């Protein structure tokens, strides 16, 4: 059944968690705007979901490492008469070389993709959500956000930013009917490690550390609908995250909200 013609924008939707979110939300009756670089995959997925669920599905090819991509995406949505009620900021990557040996253009692209674009898309969809008094935003962080920083990696710092900004936005926007959740999965079966060239290392990890993307998506969606600002899916990941932080996540959120200088 249609969800009042609500539309979900999903980045990184051509595979993995992004494609799984697309299938899940289509089954729930949401119209979709799917974004990724691989437009052929998006189009095939769009045909599949339209046929199976009778939803509207638009696709837009964009490289979110480019600074103009968020504005281009929203301009396309407007041109198609789409207003975004659900945002899934899923697109991501991880560098695999030492920081000093990596060209600045690659590092800048990583930051643009997972920090600036995530933040800008949140900012661009909020006005419509506010006008409707309803909205849902899921930002893909990682269980790595709870871990100590890794040598040469921007990834843990970036995912920590996503975790923190998601909670901050949720504090601000929840009274207006907008829920924001940082979804923090661990190792998830997808093409991520193939694309990053780390499949051999990933295959050496024990099975107990791995989750299916369908489980990650179900837990993440249940969390945002319930208004939970942080979702660490899976018992093993919850144990890992809780062992690395001195205060429980819920207590950190409560203290941050109570001490918010902008709160009325």
From TrEMBL:
Signal peptide: none
MF terms in GO: oxidoreductase activity
UniProt xrefs under Pfam families: adh_short (PF00106)
Keyword Oxidoreductase found: yes
Top-rank lineage group of the source organism: Bacteria
Keywords carried by this UniProt record: Oxidoreductase
Family, per entry: Belongs to the short-chain dehydrogenases/reductases (SDR) family.
Protein name per the record: Short-chain dehydrogenase
